[in-house]
Structure prediction request, 87 residues.
Amino acid sequence: MYDGNANTEQVPTRKHVINCLIGLLLEYNPYEKVALLHSDTADCAQVLLQEIRDILPDGEILLAQINPVLGVHIGSEKVSFVDISKR
Prediction:
């Protein structure tokens, strides 16, 4: 959600997912805090974390699994991020 507007995208491959999320992270940079969320895709979230570490704020980046209540609605093998923007 950005300025009250929810944003979702569905992309076909893992490579596209990572590229899409990197683009979004660059677009909304700078951040105060960032968390990466995944639904049964910890490996993909780790790859994303390594790719974006340079643009993220210093300090701990939370890497968490989406809970089953949300997971049942969005499905497995999803990765996303949430942030608190400095803007």
User: Anything to note?
Assistant: The first strand starts at residue 31 and ends at 39. The two ends are 14 Å apart (CA to CA). The CA atoms of residues 29 and 85 lie 7 Å apart. The chain has one domain: 14-85.
